[in-house]
Amino acid sequence: MSEHNTNQGSAVRHRHRTEGPQKHVIAFIFSIVLTLIAFAAVAAGGVNASFTIILLVVMAVLQVLVQLGYWMHLKDKGHMIPILFMAFGFFVAGTAVITALYWVWW
């Protein structure tokens, strides 16, 4: 008899579902498209400056979400604590920026 009792017959096997490269390729293409849209908005000289800034901010937020979700794997189960810490960090940083702006202009 072997020293390792694996008990494979009655045990339920839980395999970690690996995701294939398809989702990473799609996320990479989406990141490239977002970058190209941002470059095109800046390269087009006739576009309104305020629209360009808003578009760049939207593209940046989408890029961050793609990066965090797919490359940092925060879309997977078991990542709630890092997400909460990052949300708290964004809250603290946003509060600091708003406080600094209020302090400077008023």
UniProtKB/TrEMBL annotation:
Keywords, alphabetical: Cell membrane, Membrane, Transmembrane, Transmembrane helix
Topology relative to the membrane: Multi-pass membrane protein
Highest rank taxon of the organism: Bacteria
Pfam family, one: COX4_pro
Protein name, entry field: Cytochrome C oxidase subunit IV
One GO MF term: proton transmembrane transporter activity
Compartment(s) of residence: Cell membrane
Ranges annotated as spanning the membrane: 25-45, 51-71, 83-105
Organism: Paenibacillus zeisoli
Family: Belongs to the cytochrome c oxidase bacterial subunit 4 family.
A GO BP annotation: electron transport coupled proton transport
InterPro entries: Cyt_c_oxidase_su4_prok, Cytochrome_c_oxidase_bac_sub4
Any one annotated GO CC term: plasma membrane
